[in-house]
């Protein structure tokens, strides 16, 4: 890959991840992971097909792809991939719970540990994409638990990596992405209040530039966008 800094985004083939990739494309070499075929990605992005519901296997696949591409450092590792099911706690079976935790939390822990040397070499930053649901959300107990776990991970790694690797966690508010349909959630009329993936990516990118350890994108961001004439 060329001399530009390298950014890796998990779940980079749709929704917020793809919108973020489009914003970083001009100044970064991009490595994007996903489960699809990699269609519609920014030009020159390296696509790595990886199924994070099998976290150990996925991390090995990503690490191998980086080695093969000659990537020796990362400026950004954006762990954005997520999944969930909209259901009451007693309606989730063990396999469903395990899949949510594997994709959202276990894969993030393993990916952060495995790629830490590349981040340190690039004086880079780990960015965890959480959710406002991390404080608890009815009918999404496993999803909320997994995002709360990311909050604890961010605090732990920030202490462990102090002075070596930056760590941020950014909690997006409700966003129009394919995840809702996959989760079985129909927001109905509330959807008009959701951020678009493009607007949310703008806010996440802005917060990444601030370097703040943690931030939530919700009503204040919507008001700011309205005042500045930016679409939500």
Automatic annotation (TrEMBL):
Residues 5-175 form the Ketoreductase domain. InterPro entries: KR_dom, NAD(P)-bd_dom_sf, SDR_fam. It comes from the Bacteria. SMART domains: PKS_KR. The keyword Transcription does not apply. Gene3D superfamilies: NAD(P)-binding Rossmann-like Domain (3.40.50.720). Keywords: Oxidoreductase. Pfam families: adh_short. CDD domains: SDR_c. Coiled coil: none annotated. Belongs to the short-chain dehydrogenases/reductases (SDR) family. This is SDR family NAD(P)-dependent oxidoreductase. It comes from Hoeflea poritis.
